[in-house]
Specification:
The longest helix has 29 residues. About 75% of the residues lie in helices and about 0% in strands. By secondary structure, it is mostly helical. The relative contact order is 0.04.
C-alpha cells in the first residue's frame, strides 16, 4: 500500500469514525454471551439461569443504548462533531432494533415461566416506553427541531417494532397457528400504514425543516433515520417469522416469510417518494418511482425465494391465495392505485401505467401464479377492470374534451362488454345486444360531445351503427320473445326520434319515420290477422268494424274541412314568433 493510499484510508477512518459501530456490535455480542446458559458465572451463580436472564439482558442493552445516546449528546454539546453524532444516532436506532429483536427470544423464554403473560406484557411495555423516551431524550439532548409531522411516524414505526409481538405468542394469546401466521405476514402492512403517515410532512415541503438545529439540510435531514428504519422493517419482517412462526419439519428456513409480503411496505415507500418528487418538483425522482413500481411484480411472484419448495412456505402461499387472492393480483391492484394516484397528481407519464395495469388485471384471475406454473387463457378474462378503466377515461375525455381519450374509452368499454362474465349468466344473444348497443351509444355520444375530426367521423358513422343495432337487437330478441322484440323496436324508434331533435340530424328523423311506418304496418297486419282468426262472441266483430268505419268517416270529413291546413298554419305562426 502506498503512502497516499494509507493516508486516504486513515482520513476515511478519521472522518467517519467506525469504532462506535464496532464497539456497539461487540457490546451486544458480549452481553448476549454473558446472559446465556453456561456463561452466567460472571453475574450470577453458575447454573442459576436455565437459558437466559431476560431482564438482565434487556437492562444491559438499554444501558449500551443510553451510553451511545449520551455520547452523541456530548460530542455535539462540547465538540460540535456532527459527523460522529450522525453515526451515533443511527447506532441508537440500531440498538433499539437489536433490543426489539432480542425481546422476541426473551418473550419465548418468559412464556415457559410461571405467570408468563404478566412478565411478557410488562417487558413489551417497558421496551416500547424505553424506545419512546430514548428518542425524545436524544432529540432534546441534540437540540434538534423535528416537527410532529415527522416525529409521530418515527415513533409509530418504532412502537410497531416493539408491540407487534403482543399477538404472536400463542401461549399468551391463545391464537391458533394459522391466526399467528396471518399476523406475522401483516407486519409489513402495518409498517406501510406508518410510512404513509409521512405524507402530511412531505406536503409541507423542505422549507419546514430548514432551521432544524443541525448542519444538515434536506434530504439528509430528516430522511436519513427513516431510510434506516425502512431497512429495519425488512429485517424485522424476516425476524418475526424466524422467532414466532411454528416451523414445519424443524427446518430452519421453513417459514412463511416471502418477498411478496414486503410489497405493501415498498409500495408505500414509492408513494412517499413520488409525493416528494411532486412537491419538490423533481422530475427525475418521479420517473424513477414510476420505473421502479413494476419491479414489485417480480417480488410478488411467490416462487422467487430459494426456500419456495419447503412445505410450510408453499402451503401458506396456497392458503393466502385461496382466502385472499394471489400476491400477483394484489400487487397489480396496488400498482393500479399507485399509477392512478400519480396521474391524478399531475404526473402525465403515469397514464400508460394505468392502462397497462388495467389490461393485466383483465387477464389475471384471483389465483394467478398461486401455483408455480400458471398459464393465462380465455377462461380467465375479466371485463370488470376494462369497464372501470373505460368509465374513468370516459369521464376524463368529457372533462378534457379529448376525442382520442374518448375513443380509447370506447375500445375499453367494448372490450369489457365482450369479456365480462355477468353474474346473472346472461345468454349469448343478450351479451351481443349489450355489446352492439353500448358501442353504438358511445359512438353517437362521441359525435355529439366533440367537434374535431374524429367526432365528425363518429357523427357520420352513428346512423349506420344505429341501423345495425336496431336490426341485430330485433332479430335476436325475436328468437327469444316476440313481445320483447316489439318493445325493443318501439324503444329504438323513440330513441331515433329523440336523437333527431337533440342532435338536429335528419338521418335519425328519417329512421324514426321509417320505423314508425314499419311499426304501423306490422301492427295493422297483426291486428287484422288477430281480428280475422281470433274467435269472438257473435256480433262483436261487426260492431268493431262499425266503430272503425265511423272513425274513418270522421277523419275524411276533417280533412275536407281543412283542419289539417289550419293546424299547419298555427304551427308556422308559433314557429315565427319563437324565431
Amino acid at each position: 500500500m502506498s503512502r497516499r493510499d494509507s493516508h486516504g484510508l486513515l482520513s476515511l477512518i478519521y472522518f467517519h469514525n467506525p469504532f462506535y459501530l464496532i464497539s456497539t456490535c461487540l457490546f451486544v455480542y458480549g452481553l448476549k454471551l454473558f446472559f446465556r446458559s453456561g456463561n452466567t458465572a460472571v453475574f450470577f451463580p453458575e447454573g442459576s439461569v436455565g437459558y437466559m436472564e431476560p431482564w438482565g439482558l434487556m437492562a444491559a442493552l438499554a444501558a449500551v443504548t443510553w451510553l451511545m445516546a449520551g455520547t452523541a449528546t456530548a460530542v455535539v454539546r462540547f465538540g460540535r462533531v456532527w459527523e460522529d453524532a450522525r453515526s451515533l444516532v443511527l447506532i441508537v436506532l440500531l440498538m433499539l432494533l437489536a433490543i426489539a429483536v432480542s425481546m422476541d427470544e426473551l418473550i419465548n423464554v418468559l412464556s415457559d415461566q410461571d405467570n408468563p403473560s404478566q412478565h411478557a406484557y410488562l417487558m413489551l411495555g417497558v421496551g416500547a416506553a424505553f424506545a419512546l423516551f430514548t428518542v425524545e431524550l436524544l432529540l432534546a439532548g441534540l437540540r434538534v427541531k423535528l416537527g410532529w409531522a415527522f416525529r409521530l411516524p418515527l415513533h409509530a414505526l418504532l412502537q410497531t417494532f416493539f408491540l407487534w409481538p403482543l399477538g404472536l405468542v400463542t401461549e399468551l394469546t391463545g391464537f391458533s397457528n394459522e391466526t399467528t401466521r396471518w399476523l406475522i405476514a401483516a407486519f409489513p402492512l402495518a409498517a406501510a400504514a406508518c410510512t404513509l403517515s409521512l405524507l402530511p410532512a412531505v406536503r409541507r415541503g423542505k422549507a419546514s425543516v430548514t432551521n432544524n438545529g443541525t448542519p444538515w439540510r434536506w434530504p439528509l435531514f430528516p430522511w436519513t433515520p427513516f431510510v434506516f428504519l425502512g431497512l429495519a422493517v425488512v429485517f424485522r419482517s424476516y425476524a418475526l417469522t424466524m422467532s414466532f412462526d411454528p416451523k414445519a419439519n424443524g427446518h430452519y428456513w421453513d417459514t412463511i416469510f416471502g418477498l411478496y409480503q414486503l410489497v405493501p411496505f415498498l409500495l408505500a415507500v414509492l408513494v412517499v417518494l413520488l409525493e416528494i418528487g411532486i412537491r419538490e418538483a423533481i422530475p427525475g425522482l418521479q420517473k424513477l418511482c414510476l420505473l421502479c413500481a413494476p419491479l414489485l411484480l417480480v417480488l410478488a411472484w411467490p416462487w422467487l425465494v430459494p426456500w419456495s419448495d419447503l412445505p410450510t412456505y408453499s402451503s401458506f402461499v396456497g392458503d393466502f391465495s385461496r382466502q385472499v387472492a394471489s400476491p400477483v393480483l394484489l400487487t397489480l391492484t396496488g400498482l393500479t392505485a399507485f399509477f392512478g394516484w400519480a396521474w391524478l397528481r399531475g404526473v402525465k407519464a403515469a397514464e400508460p401505467g394505468v392502462i397497462a395495469c388495467g389490461l393485466l388485471l383483465a387477464v389475471c384471475p384471483a389465483d394467478a401464479w398461486a401455483s408455480r406454473f400458471w398459464q393465462p387463457g380465455v377462461q380467465h378474462l375479466n371485463g370488470l377492470p376494462l369497464l372501470g378503466l373505460g368509465a374513468c377515461y370516459l369521464l376524463l375525455a368529457v372533462y378534457s374534451r379529448s376525442s382520442v381519450r374518448f375513443a380509447l374509452s370506447v375500445c375499453l368499454v367494448v372490450a369489457g362488454l365482450a369479456t365480462i362474465n355477468l353474474t346473472w349468466t346472461a345468454s349469448l344473444p343478450w351479451r351481443q345486444i349489450l355489446l352492439t348497443h353500448g358501442a353504438t351509444a358511445l359512438i353517437i355520444l362521441t359525435g355529439a360531445v366533440f367537434k374535431d375530426t374524429f367526432a365528425t367521423f363518429c357523427r357520420e358513422l352513428g346512423p349506420s351503427l344505429f341501423v345495425v343495432s336496431l336490426v341485430s337487437g330485433t332479430w335476436h330478441t325475436a328468437h327469444q320473445n316476440l313481445s320483447v322484440a316489439a318493445l325493443h323496436f318501439v324503444l329504438m324508434a323513440c330513441a331515433a326520434l329523440a336523437l333527431g331533435f337533440v342532435l338536429q340530424e335528419p338521418a335519425y328523423r328519417v329512421l324514426a319515420a321509417v320505423q314508425a311506418i314499419i311499426a304501423v304496418c306490422v301492427g295493422s297486419a297483426a291486428t287484422v290477422y288477430g281480428f280475422v282468426y281470433y274467435r269472438m262472441p257473435a256480433g262483436v266483430k261487426p260492431l268493431v268494424l262499425a266503430v272503425v268505419s265511423f272513425l274513418g268517416a270522421i277523419l275524411i270529413s276533417t280533412l275536407k274541412g281543412g283542419l289539417d291546413r289550419r293546424l299547419r298554419l298555427l304551427w308556422l305562426q308559433r314557429k315565427r314568433r319563437r324565431g
